[in-house]
User: Fold this.
Amino acid sequence: MYLPDFLVIGSGCTGAMAAQTLAEAGHTVLIIDGGQFDTTSAEKIPHETFESLRRKDESQEKYFLGDKFESLPADEIGSGAQLTPARNFLTKEVDKYLPMISDDFFAIESLAVGGLGGGWGLGCCVFNEKELIRAGLNAEKMNSAYQVVADRIGMCGEDDDARKFTSSHIKNIQPAPSKDIPAEFLQKKFQKKQSALNANGFHLGRPALALLTQDKGNRKALDRRDMDFYDDHGHSAYRAWMTVAELKTKPNVTHEAGWLVTKFRELENSVEVTALRVGTNEEKIFSARKLILAAGPLGTARVVLRSVEGGMNKKLPLLCNPYNYTPFLIPRLLGQSISPNHLGLAQLSLFHDRNNAGEDIAMASLYSYHSLMLFRLLRETPLNFRDGRIAMKYLLPAMVIAGIHHPETEGENQFLHLQRDNSTPTQDVLVAKYELSKEKISAVNNREAEYRKAMRKLGAWAIKQVKPGNGASVHYAGVLPFSEAPSAFAIHASGRLHNHQRTFVADGSGFKYLPAKGLTLSLMANAHNVAGGAMKTI
Assistant:
């Protein structure tokens, strides 16, 4: 029987990166994922700018609103507000196969090829040495891996006041795309007041993005259509499914799409996993010499809890960055025209490094608002639809939205566990509790007040604060924290699951601390390192 060297569970950013590292070293690799994928919605979108499509395309409702009007949710805007109809496949079948119960934690998961990497905001940040050590990661290995990942995915950025928080030491960064009018205004104001703002720990600059502004291989440079949330034309924005698609052309890589891995067990010379066929619930066994779990912390937690003795009802810790967003208004820009060649991705990053010590850093991503459609903002205004639409015509060119992420540590009432539920295909359901302590809530509120003060100095005034709920950051980690001491529900620093010899975890399950910075680059770097370590004894 054919037995691949490695079985990688999950094809998101971590699974894709681990699989690439293994394949490039010559190992045989089997990738298994939920298999959800949809190119038809994106293919319906003509290759024109957002402005042109809104003015001319008589069929635009198919991709802006969706065939079932899925862009018009009846509930409040929360996790996944940026998922447009063309990307709804990212969460297809999740409610059925990855059920979760919680009153205070609202997660997003995916069974898609490429995972949630099909819709991430492309923000790339390095963790500094203090953050890496606190998270349980080897700083020297991570700094080396950052460069490997950056060379693979392609990154753009700028050498400015924020670079030490974004691309830092990474080389071969492409130039950042040009700024729009609000971003240009804010950066000029910052330059005038940089000394004072730096003294208070605030640093502003261009974000590092997994985005090409110059051609790279078969991928094309950004064409500034302002359709960043709708399609991946030209592949300028890195998506994990692109790596999977390339790997599938290699003779040593096999992709089994459409399977949900439920549990595993180690044998003397191999590991076997049990999987359900998504859609039919057919059960099948897959085997390999070693196993790499990269299903995301929530997915990996489910698999481990089902597989390890004592897992049912075992409470595991959970980390998720507290996240809120605040719309700001720049009075000087009221009534102006929307910038031509707009960009839907983050324009600027504003970091707050308390005491400039590199130990307590928050991050705000600053967006101009345009192509996510005006009706999403109208829901948040105190005006009726008619009056709100008229007002927004003048307000929108002056509006900047700051998505503020806060660092996170383990808490007493932040956990998850698996409980029996015979009504689900897996016969269980994940239960999550996420209640921030009064001290953490106070720290978040105080930090955001400091952000509002800093933005006022830049000529931007807060309109309101929006709290989308715990889980909205889509930054999850810490369910199987790194530990040198053997523990059934912990991970060795190498990524090996304790009490196992052939099972490794390549996603963020081991992180003991969650910096506020964009998480994905560090997840991919860690996955590369875990894969490298897993190869040593095969």
